[in-house]
Amino acid sequence: MSVNNDVIENYINEIQPLCDGVLGEIQADALKSGLPVIPPQVARFLSALLSIHRCKNILEIGCAVGFSAALMSRYLADGGHITTIDRYDIMIERARENFRKLGLENTVTLLEGDARDILPTLYGRYDFIFLDAAKAQYPFFFPECIRLLKTGGVMLADNVLQNGRIAAGRFEVARRQRTTHTRMKAFLDKASNTPGLESSIIPIGDGLLLTCKTGEYKKH
């Protein structure tokens, strides 16, 4: 579901095609089957963003079927690499199959397990981080993501507007959604008000947070 007007969303989807080739087949199959995959307008935004500056090292949290990692691989600098993380066996199996189809076994490294356990073990510096995992975990991922992001690097977080619920008060949200609602608000507040970060919330799809690490970040 998009936070935008349905007429506008339909228009955008009509004029911006799905990906081509095998990647497009993977995208279409995931959308048809209801598998977790970024919506087409987010895919187009991601493509445009990564076209501006070719990244050498990308980190993704939330691999799912591997579509977004495969999409990002199209925009890597020569010799670039993607590290992606997922914890669900069924998604890991699908992703590895898709990476094989696309010949990306040496371009994408898939780490299996909980990102909260894996992120503290990473010590590289990444040009770009794409965060698209369990939404209630975003505040816990955030400090590790910024630590791993090089100065001048960019983090993009998906689904931050929660189908528009993010603007509601806590008691206007269904009880089962309140933890995620509270944590997402804390995540957005932290990203928007931390020295050394410049952030913008973009109402594409279910909402994106774009954050650039402009200076020194101190973990609190």
Describe this structure in words.
The protein is globular, with a radius of gyration of 17 Å. Strands 3-2-1-4-5-7-6 form a 7-stranded mixed sheet, sandwiched between helices. Helices cover 40% and strands 23% of the residues. The chain is an alpha/beta fold. It has helices at residues 6-15, 21-33, 40-52, 67-73, 89-102, 115-118, 138-148, 178-192; strands at 55-61, 76-86, 108-112, 126-131, 149-158, 197-202, 208-213. It has one domain (6-213): 3-Layer(aba) Sandwich (Rossmann fold).
Q: Which descriptors apply to this entry?
A:
220 residues; alpha/beta; Rossmann fold; 7 strands; 40% helix
Helical stretch tally: 8
**Terminal CA distance:** 34 Å
Question: What is the tally of beta strands?
Answer: 7
The CATH architecture comes to 3-Layer(aba) Sandwich
The total domain count is 1
Mean pLDDT: 90
| Element string (H = helix, E = strand) | HHHEHEHEHEHEHEE
**In this structure, how is the largest beta sheet organized?**
7 strands, mixed
Name the CATH homologous superfamily: Vaccinia Virus protein VP39
Proportion of residues in helical segments? 25-40%
Under the CATH scheme, which class? Answer: Alpha Beta
- The shape is globular
Tell me the CATH topology.
Answer: Rossmann fold
Please tell me how large the radius of gyration is: 17 Å
Strand order of the largest sheet: 3-2-1-4-5-7-6
